[in-house]
Amino acid sequence: MKIKGLLGGHSLLISDPKALHHILVKDQDVFEEWSAFTATNSIVFGEGLVATVGNQHKKQRKMLNPVFSTKHLRSMTPGFVTVARKLEQAILSKVDAGPTEIDMTGWLTRTALETIGQSGLGHSFGDFSDRASNSFTDAIGDLVATMSVMTPAAPCIPYLVKLGSPRLRRFLVKMVPWPVLQRLRQIVDIIADNVLEIFQAKKGRLGNMATGHEEGKDIMGILLKANSTSLEGDRLSDSELLGQMATLIFAATDTTSGALARLLHLLAQHPDVQEKLRKEVVDAFRARGEDLDYDGVSALPYLDAVIRETLRV
């Protein structure tokens, strides 16, 4: 479907799976990302996977692909279960006195952030108490809504990022009396400061591995070790690694929390499906006598069907 876009441009919306495969996978070098998309991502996340094109993007993908292998996902599953148990206890504490309405979106954002923190960065963002909300979790939660309001300005971003030095651009942004823009600036600063702090701590701990400290089983630990042993031309710079961290935190948090919220919403609307799914999970849990691991979860056919249907709709 072709629609009229911003500033007299046109957009073509693609839904055919085979066409999408060519655009996103097979011929991605031909169909490069919209310059406004990569320019905006470079401002928000740095030089990560969603802000680069061409050879730089290929180099980053080559370094990142092994990190998401089934072997590594299998080893991270116990961490997922640990965080899920924390969520379970937090919700149980809310209904101790009886039934109550709970806004799950906030809890699931916190859950997803803690999951990617532990499994992706080897870092904890805090407990699940009501007092655990902090500037970083709030910033991650506000990012999409804040950027969405600014979408009409997207075509101008590729030109604005070339305007003078970064210091000048930052000064000009501060002078714009638009609360939404100032909130976005705050969010970007909060994300950048936290990512840098985690990155420096991570590098320090990896440097202590010779002393017997166990480190590097999470995504960034594996990536940092692989990067340090790669050929000079294949290595990612610190700014690229920081970009991967910021991208990973946001992408994993927003997509996971959104999908889980949608899943719970659909299950609430279809109690028959909810009961059947619960029985499958409980029976598998009882048969094992312990929490399900990666293979145990993968072996649940009804769970797989429910998740696929949730993602489809």
Concise summary:
The chain is mostly helical and 313 residues long.
Structural descriptors:
313 residues, mainly alpha, Cytochrome p450, 2 strands
Give the number of domains: 2
Share in helix: 55-70%
The percent range for strand residues is under 5%
**Major sheet attributes:** 2 strands, antiparallel
Q: How many angstroms separate the termini?
A: 20 Å
Output the CATH homologous superfamily of the largest domain. Cytochrome P450
Stretches where pLDDT is under 50 for at least 5 consecutive residues are none
Radius of gyration: 22 Å
Helix/strand order, N-terminal first:
EEHHHHHHHHHHHHHH
Spatial ordering of strands, largest sheet:
1-2
How would you portray this structure in words?
The chain has helices at residues 17-26, 35-45, 54-64, 70-94, 104-121, 135-149, 157-160, 166-175, 179-207, 219-228, 238-269, 271-288, 294-298, 301-312, and strands at residues 2-4, 10-12. The chain is an all-alpha fold and 313 residues long. It folds into 2 domains: 32-257, Orthogonal Bundle (Cytochrome p450); 270-313, no CATH class. It has a two-stranded antiparallel ribbon. The protein starts with a strand and ends with a helix. The mean pLDDT is 87.
